[in-house]
Amino acid sequence: MKMKNDFSEGNKKRPTKRKLVYVRSLSEVPDFKSDDEIADWYQTHSTVLIQDQLEALPAKVGGRLRQRAASRARARDNTRKRPHTARSA
To answer: From CA 17, how far away is CA 2, in angstroms rounded?
Structure first.
């Protein structure tokens, strides 16, 4: 007799949960050659313990996201520049 809720097949497809390695000093952070290497490393490592030692870099925005941000800024500026008119009752 087969059980109604047999999850054994589903468990084979589910990725195993990895434990994070907590980085305790800047010297433990390697030099990366590509964005893929960075992504792979951060899947298994956490820099939460050294956040105050890390350098903040400006974000680079390009492509469609830059266009969307610019159009939102223009729309926001246009609404601020419009004169307020009194509503007629």
So the answer is: 28
Confirm whether 37 is domain-assigned.
yes
Q: What is the pTM of this model?
A: 0.48
Closest CA to 51 of 32, 31, 25, 18: 25
| Cβ(18)–Cβ(44) below 8 Å | yes
Task: Give the total number of structural domains in the chain.
Answer: 1
Closest to 21 (Cα-Cα) out of 53, 56, 49: 49
* pLDDT tens track for 20-74: 999 999 999 999 999 999 999 999 999 999 999 999 888 888 889 989 989 999 9
Q: Is residue 63 part of a domain?
A: no
